[in-house]
Amino acid sequence: MADITLPIANMVEVLQKRSIPAVTRWNRLEGRPRTHHFDRALKAEVRDALWMLTRQWQLGELRADDAGSPVLAKVHVAAEPLSGFSERSGAATSFDPLIPLEAQVERHPIPFTLDGRPVSIDLRMVMGREWMALVRPLLSPDQIVLFKTTFTIEAPDPNDPADDHIIAHRGTWQRLAALSGRAVDGMQLLERLKGTIAPRDFTVILPEIPLGGVDLDRECDRFIAFCDRLFPQPRANRGSWVPDRLEYQFGLDAASSSFKAKEYYQGHLDWYNLDLVSAGPNSPSATNVVHTFLPTPVKFSGMPNTRWWKFEDERVNIGAIAPDSTDLVKLVVMEFGLIYANDWFNFPVRLKVGQWCNVKGLIITNTFGEKHWITAASRDTGTERDSTMFTLADATGLGTSPSAGLLLLPTVPKVQESDALESFVMARDEMANMVWAMETTVPMADGRGRAGKEVASELRTRMQKRLDDDFAAGAITDPAWSADIRYRLMTSVPEHWIPFISVHEEGSNRQTKLQRSSMPRIMRHGQGTPQKVKPRGQLLREGLDDDSPAAYFVQEEEATRAGIEVTRTFQRTRWTDGSVHVWMGMRKGTGRGEGSSGLRFDFLQPRKELFQPVVLQP
């Protein structure tokens, strides 16, 4: 190391020659408080207040708007309770506020028979247990046994082809066989007791069971009331359900207005599902509510602050929104949040549900002491083109919005749903030029829902085994042919695929609709005319189980290219008084797109492939 005289006279020369070895270190530039307290260091003080005021002036923040903020408000609301309810196009009946609106609209008849045979065995047994709990203290052991053997589910007969739809499914067969003679079929008993008025002559109503003077009138009334309460049925045959549209239609009435829901199927019922079909001046019986309150500014997450040196909560990053030129909704939201957010105020008003509430107006007192009477914008201008919120669509045909009302429906926020009892997917098959309804879930006799593909396969296997046994025993024979090929008129599809073909509307050469049809059940060793494959579910059997069987049609526009899926479930909820309500309802949603059945017509097929099973995914 060279000798260096300190202090160094020429630092540049020493650094260039690197005469003194050194290690370079970098420190970040930061404040180092010389006290234990950080209060002043964290204040971020602005030394030049005049510069800050100048910047606020340049940006227009000091410019007065000559407008006061609301400090006091009064609202006048005329409330009319809902008074009428109508299912589909039926006559209006009185509205029941003790039942949730979903239960009144969605409830569908619970099937207790299907194709002439008892189904919903689980519900029949629930009713039977209730009856036995009511009458057991009054009956002798012999009378209890007579009830169990008289009102019972018949055990399926393996030798009867009519019971193949049960015998083919081992779990269902076992349940029905276990219940036979051991439990009371409550539905049979209910049908026997309904229509009778106390005092009852039990020697006529129940001749099979000698009651020996036992009075069961009170127990009968309690049993009928229990069944009506537990399984409420709609007033009409199908309630509000419209089979050809696969949706609900219903109406509501108030004293001065009427409302109509033309297509409700989502499962979440609210005011936007209804249209205003007639309106008039409020009834003199309407309840007038005058409420005084302090208005507060509307706030939402990520709302931009209009004051300097105040930061947002960053829960919503409006600056990250990147709308396209066609995203009008995003642009409107951004404009509201960035420009007009602080122009909105919240006026809390408590109102009861189940009412048609007409807001007559607001009296606003601002900071200058001025009072303003404010009504709905659409009412002042008399046009529907004005921006409105929570306003029903006008179906009156008057061309104007006649009322600025708010419809508060008596609905519930939470509904529990069971597993699907029945569901089907409807899809278009362009190659076959028809629509298929594929039963993805079918109801079993014991009340459960099972995969339609499995049920169809098990039933076909059972029926084929019966034919094979008859053929082996010589009871039936196949026609003889020597050719290695055979002409096929058409192929088959899985039995849970139900066809819908296009037919003309009555009196029209252009309009078409979809009609339910049937595929033939073609089986090995089959003799005579093939049987028609019928749907297993209640929804697709529309009209088949009526006293006079009728065709079933679905409107052409309901079967979209995306397809639809319809599900039937039990639903349960609690109402405001704590009561429990259970009903059966339907949902309709988007399907799985188009499908292909592989159906072919007019072709030759080798003999060995003639009866190969067809396996398709639903």
Structural features, described:
- The termini are far apart.
- This protein has 618 residues and is α+β, with helices and mostly antiparallel strands.
- Helices cover 21% and strands 25% of the residues.
- The strands form 7 sheets. Strands 17, 18, 19, 20, 22, 23, 26, 27 and 28 form a 9-stranded antiparallel β-sheet that branches. Strands 2, 3, 6, 7, 8, 9 and 15 form a 7-stranded mixed β-sheet that branches. Strands 1, 10, 13, 14 and 16 form a 5-stranded antiparallel β-sheet that branches.
- The protein is extended, with a radius of gyration of 38 Å.
- It contains 13 helices and 29 strands.
- Shape descriptor reads extended
How far from one another are the termini?
90 Å
Q: Give the averaged pLDDT, no decimals.
A: 84
Considering DSSP H and I runs of 4 or more, what fraction of the residues is helical? 10-25%
Low-confidence stretches: 614-618
Helix count, DSSP H or I runs of 4 or more residues:
13
Strand content: 15-25%
Query: What structural class should be given to the helix and strand makeup?
Result: alpha+beta
Rg, rounded, reads: 38 Å
What composes the largest sheet? 9 strands, antiparallel
Instruction: Give the total of beta strands.
Output: 29
